[in-house]
Amino acid sequence: MKRKFNEWIATFRESIAGYDYYTDFQKVYANVDAIKIPLNILNSLVGSKNIKDDFIRLIKNYPETVPCIPILLAVRASQIYAIDDSGEMTYIFSEKKHTPEEYAVFMEKTGLFTLLSEHIIRDLIDYVTGVEVGLDSNGRKNRGGHVMENLVEKYIQKAGFIKGQDYFKEMYISEIQGKFGIDMSMVSNDGKAEKRFDFVVKTMTQLYVIETNFYASSGSKLNETARSYKTLANEIENIPGVTFVWFTDGAGWRSAKHNLEETFDVLDTIYNIKDLEDGIAQKLFV
After folding, report:
1. Of 145, 216, 222, 224, whose CB count within 10 A is highest?
2. 142 pLDDT above the threshold of 70
């Protein structure tokens, strides 16, 4: 029986976030621990009454503290570009490329001298730990994608498939062609595009190429994703022995439901988490 789109999308989840989704504290602690010694050296500048001279002297004696400077601004890059009325400058922190006086200009103009000298912070270890927590929040989107991948993989395994034997993770078109001898040129634009699928499941009679994603919030990318997967479904439909499967979910789709519905109308093998819970993997991969 043909599924009804509105009933299907009504079962989409608001979130699949676990307790470890919000902040990867192990990563935070590891990042801070890696620079703990130079941060402790820089701690000597906290409350300094003559911070510029103290900083210049410190950099001369402990040049290994220079690479720590960008993280004080919540920047991971080893190069920082800055411009003002006096000109422009690209500061390099991966190694001591500038004079201590030039680094002092950077510290002064970015406000880091004020941060340190006026006791706005008490300890750079605690401060950078907070910075790392903030930066780690940017990784939530990637973690959300991995959560969906892990969820789908769990159900593939539950259906009886073994990784590296009859299901494979993150497989490129060229790898699929080489391993299974299937012409995927219709998808790869005659070898000009190297697409990667999240999973590939091989049964006795069929090869299933699988994409997974979860969108908790709306955005323009959802419409683009729906359109591209509609095109992908139409291309793969013409490859004998290959079936495209898309597992997706998330409340973000409600703002892009019309584009998703267009794909739903042409792709019978589009499923959500509720479908997985209802045993679609065991029914589909035969």
Report:
1. 222
2. no
